[in-house]
């Protein structure tokens, strides 16, 4: 899993929110659910108590075979029954009220005071007004088919929430005196109560809003408190630590560092101060050692420069002085080769001539490299056709290649003019060609390629030799470095000056030189030369 990115403050605040918000949210949500359950439980208990009270009243009236009330009293008004029993008395005419009639009168009293409403509903009522509605039918069905003792639901009447509660009414012996078609112990109907509960819903909504406000305030307070503590106890000391670390990186080493906030941070500050003091001591000691070493290196550098200058002067002088006697020796050797006719002496003379050429080549290379490094060489730049120059070199080097059973191939791409020192560029191409002939196997091919690049020419010499190891491709252009050749028993060839001279000459012309593998086997030596503007 990828590590979370962001500042430490962001991570702390995110962690606090992810932990505190769900936890407090669950607590307050559960509190809201509990309060709602308690509210509805109180409503149900209130309906149960009312139902029990009304049923007890009905039971008393039933056990008394009815109650006689004066017709002209307020309690007897508006509650006429399906039938009436009248009893004349000295105080006036009394009317007998049955349990059903008493229940209706009580419901009217309650309804007038806007408290609650209740009524009787029977399966086969004698009074048509006691026919059950849809809710009461569902309740009676529930009582008849199961052992349920109550049935209730929440309904909406004219925009007001009403809690409808119903309890079963059972037939007993006192009921049979009037209701002949009932069977004792069966459900004859139900008593339904309608309680207005809009105030309960409003109270629950207000309570939920208060809970939400309290939860939000508590969450904000908790997050802010934890944020303050984290910032004061952790983030501020870390910011101070960052400032001190940046100061140390700039060379400022405070001795006393006080973070504040906690003992742990103060101990960190003491440890950091001790480390700062040690770093300052180490820096001072290191600067002193560096100064001493710099002075020693400066003296050593001056000595090396002096030695290098003396070496260059010595090599230049020696190579110059050696050329005169070598010329004399070469003349005497040519005379002997013309005058001596004995075959054995001719063999010795050829060996001497071969080694003399190598010695002359070595002296010439030393003379050239010392002059180039001393910046004493005179460059003669002028326009030259590189195609013509390469063609002439191929023609000159062909006899040497044929002696080794090699073929030289060059397909001229047409005139390509560059501003060069012709003699020095010829020296580069000849040197690369000589190496290609030397390391290519008999019957092989050495090819020359001229390419026009973006503002430059590329001259390539391709051989089929053993190749140059990748780790030696840069070093071979340094002085006195030779790479072993598997084609020559692993023995290095030459003095290690030829490619170094080529590199110096090419760089003096503003070009570059490198070597890479030949896909056909062997190596490809490439160097570049700036093209003329008109080309």
Automatic annotation (TrEMBL):
PROSITE patterns: HAMP (PS50885), HIS_KIN (PS50109)
Coiled coil: 276-310
Sorted UniProt keywords: Coiled coil, Kinase, Membrane, Phosphoprotein, Transferase, Transmembrane, Transmembrane helix, Two-component regulatory system
SMART domains the UniProt entry points to: HAMP, HATPase_c, HisKA
Occurrences of domain HAMP (ranges): 232-284
Main location group: membrane
Location of the Histidine kinase domain: 317-533
Molecular function GO labels: kinase activity
SUPFAM superfamilies xref list: ATPase domain of HSP90 chaperone/DNA topoisomerase II/histidine kinase, HAMP domain-like, Homodimeric domain of signal transducing histidine kinase
Enzyme Commission code(s) on record: 2.7.13.3
Location in or out of the cell: Membrane
Reaction catalyzed: ATP + protein L-histidine = ADP + protein N-phospho-L-histidine
Entry's transmembrane regions: 12-33
Source superkingdom: Bacteria
PANTHER family, per the entry: HISTIDINE KINASE 1, TWO-COMPONENT HISTIDINE KINASE
UniProt-recorded name of the protein: histidine kinase
Organism in which the protein naturally occurs: Desulfomicrobium macestii
């Amino acid at each position: 899993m990828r590590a979370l990115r962001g500042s430490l403050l962001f991570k702390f605040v995110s962690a606090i929110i992810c932990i505190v918000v769900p936890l407090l949210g669950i607590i307050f949500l559960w509190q809201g659910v509990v309060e709602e359950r308690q509210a509805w439980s109180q409503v149900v208990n209130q309906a149960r108590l009312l139902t029990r009270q009304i049923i007890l009243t009905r039971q008393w009236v039933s056990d008394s075979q009815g109650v006689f009330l004066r017709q002209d009293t307020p309690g007897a008004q508006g509650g006429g029954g399906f039938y009436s029993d009248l009893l004349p008395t000295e105080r006036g005419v009394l009317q007998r009220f049955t349990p059903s009639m008493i229940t209706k009168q009580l419901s009217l009293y309650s309804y007038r005071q806007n408290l609650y409403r209740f009524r009787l509903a029977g399966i086969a009522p004698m009074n048509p007004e006691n026919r059950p509605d849809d809710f009461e039918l569902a309740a009676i069905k529930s009582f008849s088919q199961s052992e349920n003792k109550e049935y209730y639901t929440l309904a909406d009447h004219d925009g007001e929430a009403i809690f409808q509660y119903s309890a079963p009414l059972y037939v007993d012996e006192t009921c049979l005196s009037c209701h002949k078609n009932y069977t004792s112990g069966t459900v004859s109907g139900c008593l339904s109560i309608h309680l207005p509960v809009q105030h309960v819903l409003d109270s629950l909504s207000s309570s939920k809003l208060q809970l939400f406000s309290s939860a939000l305030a508590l969450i904000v307070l908790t997050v802010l408190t934890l944020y303050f503590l984290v910032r004061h106890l952790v983030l501020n000391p870390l910011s101070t630590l960052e400032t001190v670390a940046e100061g140390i990186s700039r060379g400022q080493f405070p001795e006393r560092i006080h973070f504040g906030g906690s003992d742990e941070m103060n101990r960190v500050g003491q440890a950091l101060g001790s480390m700062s003091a040690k770093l300052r001591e180490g820096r001072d000691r290191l600067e002193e050692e560096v100064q001493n070493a710099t002075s020693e290196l400066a003296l050593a550098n001056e000595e090396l420069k002096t030695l290098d200058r003396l070496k260059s002067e010595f090599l230049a002088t020696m190579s110059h002085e050696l050329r005169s006697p070598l010329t004399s020796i070469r003349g005497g050797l040519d005379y002997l080769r013309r005058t001596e006719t004995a075959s054995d002496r001719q063999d010795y003379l050829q060996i001497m001539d071969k080694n003399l050429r190598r010695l002359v080549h070595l002296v010439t290379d030393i003379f050239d490299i010392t002059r180039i490094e001393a910046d004493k060489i005179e460059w003669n730049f002028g326009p030259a056709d590189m195609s013509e120059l390469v063609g002439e070199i191929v023609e000159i080097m062909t006899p040497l290649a044929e002696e080794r059973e090699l073929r030289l191939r060059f397909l001229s791409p047409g005139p390509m003019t560059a501003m060069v020192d012709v003699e020095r560029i010829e020296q580069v191409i000849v040197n690369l060609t000589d190496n290609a002939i030397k390391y290519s196997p008999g019957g092989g091919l050495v090819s020359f390629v001229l390419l026009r690049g973006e503002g430059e020419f590329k001259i390539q010499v391709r051989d089929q030799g053993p190749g140059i190891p990748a780790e030696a491709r840069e070093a071979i252009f340094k002085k006195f470095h030779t790479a072993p050749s598997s084609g020559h028993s692993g023995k290095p060839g030459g003095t290690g000056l030829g490619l170094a001279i080529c590199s110096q000459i090419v760089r003096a012309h503003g070009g570059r030189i490198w070597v890479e593998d030949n896909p056909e086997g062997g190596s490809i030596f490439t160097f570049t030369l700036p093209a003329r503007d008109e080309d």
